[in-house]
Amino acid sequence: MTAKPSGHRGIENSPIPTATLEQTPSPTPPPAVMRPRRVLLVEDDPDTATGLQLLLEHRGYTVAIILDGNSALQAVADFLPDVIVCDLTLAGAVDGHSIAAALRGHPTLRSIRRVALSGHADEGTRQLAHASGFDSYLVKPVALEALESALGTCSI
Asked: With a threshold of 0.85, does the pTM exceed it?
């Protein structure tokens, strides 16, 4: 090849070989991990319930709040959540353990993920919650990251 003068001393213009670009298939994206979108929060303390609702809604969840255990099962049937986050000790005759046990035994509602929320960090309470039918157990005050982890994944 013959060097041709360029506008700069010592630099030669020479043809640049055209690289053949191989067509590489774009990688297949991993299957989307679907997080639950509908959360029923059963918590008898309005401040705690509202705080958790705001945090979750800010993260894209649709949240319904029930402030007593007596209304929880009807709310589950009406709202059809992906996950229920339920305080263990609720005002009224129905507590969180009863709600989890009822959901676990219901033929169409048993697939709803159940997350216990408690002010008690002892192992006995944790085991009782698991025996009642809860999938996860969180101690108040709960960090948002721990809550989202407990919400888990589900197909929508």
From this structure: no
Residue with structure tokens 């959901």? 103
Q: Taking every pair of C-alpha atoms in the chain, what is the biggest distance, in angstroms?
A: 95
> 83 — phi, psi (to 5°)?
-140, 145
Please tell me the distance from the alpha carbon of residue 111 to that of residue 135, in angstroms, as a whole number: 11
Sign of CA dihedral 34, 61, 150, 78: negative
Q: Classify 132 as helix, strand or coil.
A: helix
Give residue 52's identity as a one-letter amino acid code: L
Asked if residue 39 lies in contact with residue 60, where contact means CB atoms within 8 angstroms, the answer is no
As a whole number of angstroms, the distance between CA 1 and CA 146 comes to 67
Residue type, 40: L
Are the CB atoms for 64 and 41 separated by under 8 Å?
Answer: yes
- Looking at residue 110, the DSSP 8-state letter turns out to be T
Angle separating helix axes 96-105 and 72-79, nearest 10 degrees: 40
Instruction: Please state the rounded mean pLDDT for residues 45-72.
Output: 95
* Cα angle, residue 125 at apex, residues 123 and 126 outer, rounded to 5°: 60
